[in-house]
Amino acid sequence: SPAEFGSARYWDRFFRQRGQRPFDRDRAGARRGCCALLLHKYVRPRDKVLVVGCGNSELSEQMYDVGMCEDIINIDISDAVIRQMRERSASTRPQMSYLRMDMLQMDFPDAHFQVVLDKGTLDALLTDEEEATLAKVDQMFAEISRVLQVGGRYLCVSLAQAHVLKKAVEYFSQEGWVVRIHQVASSGDKQQFVLPVFVYVMTKFRKIPGSAAQILEICPEEQDKPMRVQSAEQLVAAVKDRQHYALLCSQISKTPCREQVSLDLCDKESGKPRYTLHVVDSPAVKPSRDNHFAIFIIPQGRETEWLFGTEEGRRQLAASAGFGRLLTVALHREQHYEGMAGIQAELSGKVMELAPPGLPARQQVPFLSVGGDIGVRAVRHCGSSPLSGQFVVEDVKGDGTCYFRRLIFLQNRNVVQSEARLLAPTPLPGQKKRRKDKKKASPTEPPGAIDKSYLCCEHHKAMVAGLCLLGGPDALPGELAVLVVGLGGGSLPLFVHDYFSEAHVAVVEIDPSMLEVATRWFGFSQGDRMQVHLSDGLDYVAKLAAEAPAQYDAVMFDVDSKDLTVGMSCPPPAFVEKPFLQKVKTILKPEGVFVLNLVCRDARLKESVLAALRDVFPLLYARRIQGEVNEILLCQPGPAGRRDPAELGARARALEGALRQPGRPWDSSYTLADMLQAVHIL
């Protein structure tokens, strides 16, 4: 039982049965070389070293034999192992001694050693968090502290179970010691030794009365420079991350991934995510020597696209690439990258830890991308508001030669909140200028013009297509009164305003910061036919329902939810509750249309939303957006019954004709008739 680990009788019996075979409690025998290299940093040749719970480990003998240190005293409570070790070293290591002694009650004078070395003894003692066990550990730490000189080091080799690490860090940091945790570099048989080994380096300082300052650091195996953390909890969490990563690497090196695995690699200095990796396995790909493994670098700004930003898209990407395992790499906007070659050099060592089973030795692993570069991303504006949190406006290069401006809320950084195409992109980092003069662009140089004729978002196209339900079968109504709840970058209300010359558009936006962003960065402006009301959409609609019913031909909801814990990110749940939907119906004209952008991943919640809509609106159509979660619901308060598809087609042609009036710009990449192809009656 675990309690026996503190018993001399148990260890006497254990070592008699084991004989001369060395035993390492932390199973780190395969990593002794790496451990010895680390000890060189903290053990000087003239140091007096105490090894507690030495057992029959070879570590002391190796330290002596390589000349690291000779004044070494080894203690253990097992009389059998002490006799065994004395016999083994008596003739070859005269200055090294072995003593039978209980580390909880040592006979050495105070401040007698410069180094106390513990190779797994703490792990063996601290098997649980019972009061008696913790009392023994406190006694052990107190004795180590007593026999160490000021400036001395307690070096503890451990597997760093959470309760063991937490106890050691809290005890010594509260005593004013400097606490540093090293991860020992992996070596040996990774199939057998899965968990990483750590070395706690506790450096003794005189405790300053009243001082609460703590110095806590971690040194990952891939770097020598320690990283400072602020609390014991953060240090324990950092170690836990590395343990989980080691288990993950072990697991996916043995078997293919049934589900996609994702992880963040963080910047060494700031600790912020630098790369997001997804491991995608394609069981259908028949393995050959050259198609086991590849790394795909997603160009900057394109990580939100369906092919790269969704699980199904990445699965399709991996299958089309023809590799058994594809590792996709997304680049973060807060980071700077030195081109494709720099990324390859930075990632080469780490990505090989995620290689699939059966990868041939010394196999060349290709780095893939779109267009052979890492893309272009330029952050134009960073801001924050109490309602929307932190956000950025950025310009990115899309597929081909087009550039786009995007609004991103950082609390949901993989979702594009608003997007607009740029007519003349501002020169971006890494882009060659055509001008012969070498004058740099002024920081105040106006941004590229917004192409207001182009709707980037597929769900916006479907929302505009919903206007085909208005008016008679051969023509659209002349004047349109449209209410849009949710401004974002303003693309949707701008499009309606510009293409319907007699439309009057009212926009409701709760966040004043979004109006400023839309005006400054997305070409939005107000006028006689475009007015923005800074208000909560719930309050505004309720007030209209009470004071001015039946005044809008179309009401459009394109408003996101700030509560990420709900399975519906658009709209907030209050906007689709039945009493509020009744108010929406009240402000619509009898032949009007209510257009709702619904983004709901919770099947039950979605069904409840649809049920509430059916109760209020007799006529309900759904437009599903291919490759996206968005679904556009077109609701009418008119009499129940299905519309004739031919009538819908006629209305679509009428709307398209209105948009193609002479003298109006029109992008030929889509038509409103195309938008309606996927309209299905629920």
TrEMBL record:
Q: What Gene3D superfamilies is this protein classified in? A: Vaccinia Virus protein VP39
Which residue intervals define the domain Methyltransferase in the entry?
47-168
> Compositional bias of type Basic residues: which residue ranges?
431-441
Task: Provide the alphabetized UniProt keywords.
Answer: Methyltransferase, Multifunctional enzyme, Transferase
GO terms in the biological process aspect are: methylation
Q: Where is the signal peptide?
A: none
Task: Using the UniProt annotation, give all residue ranges assigned to the region (Disordered).
Answer: 426-447
Q: Write one Gene Ontology MF term.
A: methyltransferase activity
SUPFAM superfamilies in the cross-refs: S-adenosyl-L-methionine-dependent methyltransferases
Supply the InterPro entries for this chain.
Answer: Lys/N-term_MeTrsfase_sf (IPR051419), Methyltranfer_dom (IPR025714), SAM-dependent_MTases_sf (IPR029063)
One GO cellular-component annotation of the UniProt record comes to:
cytoplasm
PANTHER family linked: EEF1A LYSINE AND N-TERMINAL METHYLTRANSFERASE, SAM-DEPENDENT METHYLTRANSFERASE SUPERFAMILY PROTEIN
Q: Which family does the similarity line name? A: Belongs to the methyltransferase superfamily.
> What's the protein called, per UniProt?
eEF1A lysine and N-terminal methyltransferase
Give the organism the record lists: Sylvia borin
